[in-house]
Amino acid sequence: MLDPAYNHELPTIPGKRYFTIGEVSELCAVKPHVLRYWEQEFPQLKPVKRRGNRRYYQRHDVVLIRQIRSLLYLEGFTISGARNKLALEHPAPENAERAQAIQSLIRELEDVLTLLKDC
Q1: Which CATH architecture has domain 4-91?
Q2: Could you tell me the pLDDT band of residue 91, with boundaries at 50, 70 and 90?
Q3: Terminus of the chain with fewer CB atoms < 10 Å: N or C?
Q4: Backbone CA torsion sign across 37, 38, 39, 40
């Protein structure tokens, strides 16, 4: 998703397990208050919260934040447009279950439709 032409702007992601909000801010060239706002707007972005409500981001969170940054700042998406695009690519856990249930229902309805056509 990230354009290789822009990869030189952002530092490489170190091989750590957890990153603080300050580290993620530097890695993604986004201010901490923007990261906190994006947590509210993008359900896929859920950093681990520990003592004192401190956020700890994992590598997949950093990659997701870079994707969000790319969509908003480089590709010109609105927040809702980026949210919709990411929802298709990275469904939130509860949305993934719902999507599976819908797909199962669609298959069952197609089977019923096939049976009705055969009658």
Answers
A1: Orthogonal Bundle (1.10)
A2: low
A3: C
A4: positive
Place of tokens 């509210």: 40
Spatial CB neighbours of 62, under 8 Å, sequence gap ≥ 6: 13, 19, 24, 27, 28
Assign 56 to helix, strand or coil: strand
Which residues have a Cβ under 8 Å from the Cβ of 74 and sit 6 or more positions away? 3, 6
Could you state, in order of their start, the residue ranges of all structural domains in the chain? Answer: 4-91
Burial of 20 (0-12, 13-18, 19+ CB in 10 A): middle
Question: Which tokens belong to 82?
Answer: 């980026």
Q: Tell me the pLDDT tens digit for each residue of 16-39.
A: 899 999 999 999 999 999 999 999
Which of 9, 2, 41, 38 has its CA nearest to residue 21?
38
Q: How far apart are the first and last CA of the chain?
A: 48
Q: Write the pLDDT tens digit of every residue in 44-62.
A: 899 998 888 899 999 999 9
